[in-house]
What we know:
The chain is α/β, with parallel strands linked by helices. It is built from 10 helices and 8 strands.
Amino acid sequence: MSIADNLKKYKSEVESDGVKLIAVSKTQTVDAILEAYNAGQRVFGENHVQEMVDKQAELPTDIEWHLIGHLQTNKVKYIAPFVKLIHGVDSIKLLQEINKQALKNKRIIDCLLQVYIADEDTKFGLGFDEVIELLRSEEYAELKNIRIVGLMGIATNTKNEKQITVEFNELKVFFDGVKVSFFRKEDSFKEISTGMSADYKIAIEEGSTMVRIGSAIFGKRIIKHFKADISAN
């Protein structure tokens, strides 16, 4: 099946539930992304700053770019002019840098707090208590050029669907508590970013509002390393 055919399948399935489909385009070519764009996709997710910056310069300006990978503070300035949503915010230090760069670009940048829900040491994210501590902090209260619009989480990489369901459910319950406690009057706080190709159906059942699907749309990835014009800066 073509990229357009794959995309049509997932868009009809995901968007019929009112969930946003993020086409994960990391390591995909500009031509492949353009094929998805021409088939109606406008939201793309990238893991690496250099790669996203390069592609953003070559592709249509109405694309909504999401940074879904781990973000280092020294890379924020490169995506601040255009990024639509930063998914993996896991520290007040990173939020402060995003705020600083957003101010320079006269923008308010939307962010998701990444919450650690997996039973794995390799995942990034804040603990439930750390999220509460951050949102109560004076440092957070001073940030006027970022907007927390929800939470993001990555489940354990396992075939145990019961475990995945429990992890996604815990995040939804926590989201509801955070909404009531900190964002009761903020309509913008509404996003739960969970679910990838292997577990997106469970994620949607457990309240996800956006899912990240890559290889199932584009086919097998070409592994390519973006080493570093900007990593040295």
